[in-house]
Amino acid sequence: MSADGRLPPFPDDAFERVLCVVAHPDDVEYGTSSAVAAWTSRGVDVAYLLLTRGEAGMDSSRPEQTAQLRVREQIAASAAVGVSEVDFLDYPDGVLVYSLEMRRDISRTIRRYRPDAVVVGSWEVEFTAGLNQADHRVAGLATLDAVRDAGNRWVFPELLEEGLEPWSPQWLLVAGDDAPTHGVDVTGDALERGIESLEAHREYLAGIPGHPPPRPMISGVTAVFGPRLGVAHAVLFRAFDFHAPPPIALEAMKLAEAIAADGGAGAT
To answer: What is this structure's pTM?
Structure first.
């Protein structure tokens, strides 16, 4: 964070490939997709992995019909922000359970796609938008663990038999976290494309009583976050750099250096 309290943007060369892992169709579209649009416009390659097909999301439609509709809408939403690789797993919507199988399946995609950064939603019970939904929490936590699993040769050795060598993404980016560390400027075209991506879920959204229209919703949320980055519209993330020492280690090293420079004063 800068001296004036503003969050930093990611460096332009921070990542070339990004994988977004979420529970349902439309999860990426509540703001994060505007950041995706900003990235793809700069040539960053972005892919999506969805753990379910959202089949439990419409009370008026049977699950098999809902799944087909929501997959179609998600593919259209993804295309609006420059994403063409969209994979769906077959975990049951609404009743996701954290499991080793889920970690393995996410790890498989990480090893196959080899991203520099993985984007997830918050796994906390309470997050920026209020109380978090159960599937969102499971998806976030399983992905956090899968990021580590993907880089460990001896975890899920069956992936080696599939020809998938270990891969360790540098970044884990958490959307919706109450303590963001970085932001993405989405002012202009990226915001417009992000709005378009949520609008692509029109039939699903039409079945949610009182759901606000996508344009004022997304433009309003990103405008709230914009001043944190010093811009008109922003999407914020909490970023974890897995290739850097833990923050406590950095603080300890700074303290040790200060003590050494002071001739060991204060040491016991």
So the answer is: 0.92
